[in-house]
């Protein structure tokens, strides 16, 4: 009886051991695959070794968390860089309010979602090389295309944090209403409370695709000298931990390579956006403090 | 120290937001409490239809998160042709919230009045109206005061949700500043201090009242 128990225990132990060895073998093969991968840059520092932890802000078509399967232009760019550096991309949902805080707190390596490089923001973190231009879009039923057209409206809406907000506030005063995100802005535009919807051009192209009677114009095409953000379009980039030079170098080189080989321009045009948005300056334009 | 210097610079914008928060809280409390009293009477009414209606209003007001009610008033009503401004929508939504919570506190206060008081007023030949307004209400409301003060603090803090419907209140001022320089921790700490400066003394007053009520119980 005792022997039978021992035999069963032995068999169980053998199965567990075999399963363990099998798992180890699987892990080993993954490790082998990773060891086969040669990163373009050695010693890239990330918050979790072997992983690139990315905070994803919802701003389609640039980035959408999409229930843990992120998609978008920024996601494609960063995935390619992660692959080149033999890092496994991992994602977590982020907002503009918490993304940079999460970076400085060591929870994520970088954030994606059309974040423009500015002098003030550079005090809180570093920015990668620029990915594309952040154009200002105007959506309206009246066909407004310029800031002067916005002045003729009774209410205009835009989103907190965009670099044109302060200038528009000076021009439009109380006519300008600001919202936390594109969702609330569009909801109010649909409700008829505002006549002009001022948002990132790329976002509006997607939002109003196929909507009858609404035109979307790129304000940068007819720049108004009173609004700095459209006379010189801000450049989107990925904020990352201040002082992480190894990651910044990897991101910079990865972005420059994708700009040079036309990957970013293709991503923009595939999303239905103007190829012109891919024409960032050779030297990163950092929006100066006003 | 640089935080303190920055905070001084942010204060004017924050104070303007705080003013809007206090105004919304004040309106929703001033309108919510009388409505809460009416609802508490409806909930205890003998008529089934009145009681059911009162219960429905109270339970939706207490059961649905304040943010959902805000969205319904602001983004939902325009679909039915009713469009309010953001501050009006915030006041209406928070009034409903305040009314729903305060009605339960008032109902409990009214029901806590000893039955002997009712019998004594009957024996004195007071009318139902006089019994309610001169005997039941003063005593019931006295015990409801600490709870109502708690609801008032809750309403003030609840005004921060109005940011979602573009009301330029305290949290919106904080977000505006934060999105400019990404120093959200710094600015949210200041916003927290602003809320605490109002809420903490209000809480102490509530505790003081509770102690006084307990002494006279």
From TrEMBL, chain A:
Gene3D superfamilies: Periplasmic binding protein-like II
Keyword annotations from UniProtKB, A to Z: Signal
Signal peptide: 1-32
Presence of the UniProt keyword Ribonucleoprotein in the record: no
PROSITE patterns referenced in this protein's UniProt entry, alphabetically: PROKAR_LIPOPROTEIN (PS51257)
Domain Solute-binding protein family 3/N-terminal: 51-275
InterPro entries (alphabetical): Solute-binding_3/MltF_N
SUPFAM superfamilies (UniProt xref): Periplasmic binding protein-like II (SSF53850)
SMART domains per the UniProt record, alphabetical: PBPb (SM00062)
Domain of life the protein comes from: Bacteria
Protein name: Transporter substrate-binding domain-containing protein
Higher taxonomy: Bacteria, Bacillati, Actinomycetota, Actinomycetes, Micrococcales
TrEMBL record, chain B:
Stored Gene3D superfamilies: MetI-like (1.10.3720.10)
Predominant subcellular localization, coarse grouping: membrane
Keyword Transport: yes
Compartment(s): Cell membrane
Keyword Transmembrane helix set for record: yes
Span of domain ABC transmembrane type-1: 18-206
Transmembrane segments: 20-41, 53-74, 80-99, 144-165, 185-209
Chain segments annotated as coiled-coil in the UniProt record: none
Its membrane topology: Multi-pass membrane protein
Entry keyword set: Amino-acid transport, Cell membrane, Membrane, Transmembrane, Transmembrane helix, Transport
Alphabetized NCBIfam families for the sequence: HEQRo_perm_3TM
Protein family per UniProt: Belongs to the binding-protein-dependent transport system permease family.
UniProt xrefs under PANTHER family: L-CYSTINE TRANSPORT SYSTEM PERMEASE PROTEIN TCYL (PTHR30614:SF0), MEMBRANE COMPONENT OF AMINO ACID ABC TRANSPORTER (PTHR30614)
Protein name, per record: Amino acid ABC transporter permease
């Amino acid at each position: 009886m005792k022997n039978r128990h021992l035999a069963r225990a032995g068999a169980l132990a053998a199965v567990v051991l075999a399963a363990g060895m099998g798992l180890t073998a699987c892990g080993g093969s993954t490790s082998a695959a990773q060891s086969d991968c040669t990163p373009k840059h050695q010693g890239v520092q990330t918050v979790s070794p072997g992983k690139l932890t990315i905070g994803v802000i919802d701003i389609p078509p640039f980035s959408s968390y999409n229930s843990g399967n992120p998609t978008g232009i920024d996601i494609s760019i960063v995935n390619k860089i992660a692959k080149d550096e033999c890092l496994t991309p991992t994602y977590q949902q982020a907002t503009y309010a918490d993304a940079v805080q999460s970076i400085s707190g060591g929870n994520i390596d970088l954030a994606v979602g059309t974040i423009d490089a500015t002098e003030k923001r550079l005090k809180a973190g570093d920015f990668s090389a620029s990915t594309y231009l952040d154009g200002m879009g105007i959506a309206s039923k009246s066909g407004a295309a310029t800031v002067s057209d916005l002045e003729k409206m009774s209410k205009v809406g835009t989103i907190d944090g965009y670099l044109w907000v302060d200038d528009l506030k000076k021009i439009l005063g109380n006519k300008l209403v600001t919202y936390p995100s594109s969702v609330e802005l569009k909801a109010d535009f649909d409700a008829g409370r505002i006549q002009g919807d001022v948002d990132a051009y790329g976002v509006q192209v997607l939002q109003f695709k196929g909507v009858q009677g609404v035109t979307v114009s790129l304000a940068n095409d007819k720049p108004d000298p009173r609004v700095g953000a459209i006379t010189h379009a801000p450049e989107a980039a990925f904020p990352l931990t201040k002082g992480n030079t190894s990651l910044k170098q990897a991101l910079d080189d990865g972005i420059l390579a994708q700009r040079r080989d036309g990957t970013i321009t293709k991503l923009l045009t595939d999303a239905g956006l103007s190829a012109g948005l891919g024409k960032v300056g050779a030297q990163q334009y950092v929006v100066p403090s006003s | 120290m640089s935080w303190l210097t920055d905070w001084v610079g942010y204060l004017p914008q924050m104070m303007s937001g705080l003013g809007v928060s206090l105004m919304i809280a004040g309106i929703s409390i001033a309108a919510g409490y009388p409505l809460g009293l009416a609802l508490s009477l409806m909930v205890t009414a003998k008529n089934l239809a009145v009681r059911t209606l009162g219960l429905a209003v109270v339970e939706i007001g207490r059961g649905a998160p304040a943010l959902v009610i805000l969205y319904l008033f602001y983004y939902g009503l325009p679909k039915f042709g009713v469009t309010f401004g953001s501050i009006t929508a915030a006041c209406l939504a928070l009034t409903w919230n305040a009314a729903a919570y305060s009605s339960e506190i008032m109902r409990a206060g009214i029901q806590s009045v000893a039955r002997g008081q009712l019998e004594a007023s009957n024996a004195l030949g007071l009318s139902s109206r006089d019994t309610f307004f001169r005997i039941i209400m003063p005593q019931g409301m006295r015990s409801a005061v600490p709870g109502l003060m708690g609801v008032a603090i809750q309403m003030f803090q609840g005004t921060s949700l109005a940011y979602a419907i573009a009301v330029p209140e305290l949290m919106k001022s904080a977000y505006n500043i934060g999105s400019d320089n990404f120093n959200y921790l710094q600015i949210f700490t200041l916003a927290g201090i602003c809320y605490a400066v109002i809420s903490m003394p209000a809480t102490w007053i509530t505790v003081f009242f509770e102690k006084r009520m307990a002494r006279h119980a």
